[in-house]
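The aim of this short unit is practical: by the end, you should be able to scan a pair of folded records and say something sensible about each. We start with the first protein, listed as its amino acid sequence and then its structure tokens.
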Amino acid sequence: MIKQPTTHQNQLLAVLPAPVLKRLLPHLELVSLARDEVLYEAGRPLQHVFFPTTAIASILYISENGSSDELAMVGNEGLIGICVLMGTNCTNDDAIVQNAGYAYRLKASILKQELDRAGGRRSGALQNLLLRYSQALLAHMGQTAVCNRHHSVEKQLCRRLLLTLDRIDGNELDMTQESIANMLGVRREGITEAAGKLQRAGLINYHRGHITILDREKLEANACECYRTVKKEYDRLLADEPANLSSMPPLAANLVYISDSKRKAMR
């Protein structure tokens, strides 16, 4: 039996105080999102924001020549449309569904009203939570740029597979080599070679756009530190009882590339 999606499947909605969630519930619309569905486009006003439960979307920058690079991915940990939180209603990137599933849709105007009602950053539970999420997402984007610049296609593929696994149930992924290449901004041949290496090593099984993760532990060991850095930042900022942020390093520290080997040498 397929379980009916609930708001608690989205990590942001799950930790909202009951009074805040109660005000939002009448306006949250459960919607089914199809693969390749465009949720918003660069330069166009956002009418809605989305809290995914089982769907996953890619935040993409698409250049004038049509090539694309994935800046980040958003699943059940987050919100699609953070520009609304920043006081605007459009952005310079696109949000496209990569994994079909469900999300709760909310009118951008309703979110703005709730943020205004909350009374500012210090007194608004929703705004505090979304600001922490925004910091995690910015760290995610920064680390993606670092990874694409410094790490091999194989390492990038491991990172992308692990981040997707964190946002779904099970170990089965529907991802074509072409879609992965578009997200990572690399040639399809590079993905074919990298996926082949992982399959021969017994980490994955790939067949006609369907990937089965056979050994997650080895996949994590084969990934670069970028996966662990991004996961740690989400865990730190989206905990039910977040740590005292004043004791944490600034966000900029997460965007400076220092490899594991360099860190060891600096000790």
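Turning to the second protein, read its sequence before its tokens, just as you did above.
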Amino acid sequence: MLAERLKGHPPIVGVLRASSRELAVRAAMAAIQSGLSCIELTFTTPEAHRAVQDLRLICGPEVLIGLGSVTCAEQLHMAQHAEADFLVSPHLDPELLIQAQSLGLEYVPGAFTPSEVVQALKHGAKTIKVFPASRLGPAYFKDLAGPLPGLSLMATGGISADNLQAYLQAGARMVGVGSIFPTAALENRQWDVIQQKTLEVLHTAQVPA
């Protein structure tokens, strides 16, 4: 389970969308060099699965590298071939979840409502991404834990150094943070900006608000 694999590390998943494979690798390395230990490259990035392979060659098994924005079975097979550590979707598709399990892949489906969360659990999901989390707020995670104790939830969407502690304290096991990789910093190759954003997020994740 992803949360278990992150034990001993800040519960941060850096969510990276880039306009090219090369930019994705360079940006990921800037964050990794600043201490980030888990990155999700989305399939909205061209050749995202190949960027995962590039990073795997550079980083080895020390960094968890996953693929996000998974929406079809073809992407499951691409992720398997790339040896991605985990897969993430923005939505719940029970058939996709079952297929991922049959391939032995760690798959985190997306959910928004309690009904979707329960459906994901019924189909065997171990960790569930709540997206977009900012539309619901931190209190939503505490509310879900009442009738559904023991959930392993990842909050994604609108998460930053300013609010991530609120989500963690409300019950999220981890947070997906895209603000580590500002679009302007990516396009302008401002690796120092990405490194600073990474350090801010990692520091906030370890220091209670």
